[in-house]
Amino acid sequence: MTYSAVDVIATKRDGRLLANEAIAWILDAYVRGEVAEEQMSALLMAIYFNGLSDAELSTWTDCMIASGERLDLRGLSRPTVDKHSTGGVGDKISLILAPLVAACGAAVPQLSGRGLGHTGGTLDKLESIPGWRAFLSNEEIREQLDSIGAVICAAGQGLAPVDRKLYSLRDVTATVESIPLISSSIMSKKIAEGTHALVLDVKVGRGAFIKNVERARILAHTMVRLGTDHGVATVAQLTSMDAPLGRAVGNALEVTESVEVLRGNGPDDVRELSVELARVMLQLVDIHVDPAGKLDDGSAYEVYRTMIRAQGGDPDAALPVAVCTDKVIAEHDGVIQSIDALDVGVAAWRLGAGRERKEDSVSAAAGVVCLVREGEAISKGQPLFELHADDEAHLQRGRDAIARAVVVGERPVNAQPLLLERVTK
Ligand code: URA
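# uracil complex -> structure
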């Protein structure tokens, strides 16, 4: 049967269901350049308003996966389990979790991306380690998973390649926020990666790309169903992203903080989330080991060092240090009511830690260290944030961006829970 792009668009525009063959045809024709950008834009907008049924979404995701290669991780000596975060400020959990879960006996294929805007990217953080290389062949990935149990590397261009084209188009057509489009984009890449099990860390709050719990819950349910239906045991954990995670926000600064946690120290919230996500990952692959013990006895840190070395990095090398630093000082006594993750993320970005466009480079040394936490009593003159930048111009941009990040008041503040709710099939 032949299809016309106009008919497919009209079907979705009018709220009717797309046939499996129509979905397969339009995605394939779009990759081949036979369906124009403006036609796919119209279809994306129709999906934004009218959604996709469960069956349509499943087919849409299948076709995205079929647009590229699928890694074959069968036959490894350990079960594979991965984690995906929808992105937050100070979210360095992947750096800790991959070696931690590997130290407990599973294999973690963390195929990661770079940061865009105010949220950081795992590869940008690890690239602050001298010599570390993000690009591995599929054979190297398999071999490292088998021998060490942990790989953090760039997701190959071959995984669900239609997603790159669709994502760029969504970015310029105000259709990024559609739940079926987000779910299929994330899950097509994770399913194509070949992991057997997956934990989704769905961030909610001021610094997350989803601000309210109801929407996060729907996204989590949709992704869990997609993963499970495709044979990947999937669980989602909703976690708060109102305040930055940990104290450090910025590439090398976050590597340093991750190493502290891997050595059994570091901020409580980073440790709590790492241990909790590790527990869920291990449950999914039926491994009964306490991850907290692997942080305290140094074995997770040993796996981290081996993983960094295997990818050319020197875990003992000094990390880049900022040329310019400054402190933001409290103007009066009080109690920290809130620290806005979005403001801190934007400040780190302005200081040079993030990029404006995909092709920009990032500063390894730039970023923010939060010297206080929500609920803490402070005195006038006390430093609240430390700003790091490569030059004075970036430092000034960071000062401007962070000006409203903290609210100081009189009343005591109860700590908000980090772990919100768990979503399973
Ligand atoms: N991350 C993705 O990979 N895709 C989206 O649509 C949103 C976040």
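# post-check
The chain has a mean pLDDT of 96.
The radius of gyration is 22 Å.
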